[in-house]
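A reminder from the course coordinator: this example appears on the midterm review sheet, so study it carefully.

Given structure:
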């Protein structure tokens, strides 16, 4: 069946939270030493891993973690605890980093996002962004005038379901009016994003590398499913 819609994950697929100058400016250990590059990279990994739990919680923290993408308050609770348990020594520092995390304008798009969006628009293929997330990512698209290419945003805290739960994919396809067999899901997690296959969608896995190391990952994923310029 011809592909009529492409569903994209957000974090690690279309955008990535990367090390910027601001990331470490105020970040020091309890003894005053600046976090080194490896420690900052590990913090980023812990804040953006799609499904993996990388710290241990008490009962309240575990509940917040398990439900973080359904409720902004639980999301904040969970990630502030992740940061503190990962060596960020003060609440102020943790709060600073968390605020940066939930600012979609601080995220970096992959180099081929605009080309992919215009390619699909030119072929009349609908686009949706399907994300396990508890903050609004639309500003990242609006600021670049990319929202005009996105037919639906399906965010877990608005839908009330978390990938790989089929309900979030089903709700997205309902918004688009597309059958599962005519949809392709693109994401960086076989476990979470690959849940779309339970409904009969196709799936393409991309590697959540730093943006400069993955210049054509999205284009390559589409090409593997017969979507490219001139086709």
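Designed residues:
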């Amino acid at each position: 069946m011809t592909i009529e819609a492409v569903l994209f994950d957000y974090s690690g697929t279309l955008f990535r939270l990367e090390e910027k100058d601001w990331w470490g400016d105020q970040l020091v250990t309890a003894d005053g030493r600046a976090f080194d590059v490896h420690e900052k990279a590990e913090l980023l990994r812990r804040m953006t891993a799609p499904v993996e739990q990388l710290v241990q919680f008490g009962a309240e923290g575990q509940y917040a973690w398990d439900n973080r993408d359904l409720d902004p308050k639980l999301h904040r609770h969970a990630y502030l605890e992740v940061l503190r348990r990962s060596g960020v020594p003060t609440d102020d520092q943790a709060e600073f980093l968390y605020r940066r995390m939930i600012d979609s304008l601080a995220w970096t798009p992959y180099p081929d996002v605009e080309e992919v969006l215009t390619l699909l628009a030119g072929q009349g293929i609908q686009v949706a962004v399907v994300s396990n997330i508890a903050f609004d990512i639309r500003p990242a698209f609006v600021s670049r005038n990319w929202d005009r290419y996105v037919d639906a945003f399906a965010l877990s805290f608005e839908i009330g379901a978390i990938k790989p739960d089929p309900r979030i994919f089903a709700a997205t396809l309902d918004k688009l009016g597309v059958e599962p067999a005519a949809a392709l899901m693109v994401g960086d997690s076989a476990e979470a994003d690959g849940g779309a296959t339970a409904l009969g969608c196709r799936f393409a896995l991309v590697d959540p590398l730093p943006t400069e190391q993955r210049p054509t990952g999205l284009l390559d994923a589409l090409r593997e499913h017969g979507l490219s310029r001139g086709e």
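The first helix runs from residue 21 to 25. Residues 25 and 213 are 24 Å apart (CA to CA).
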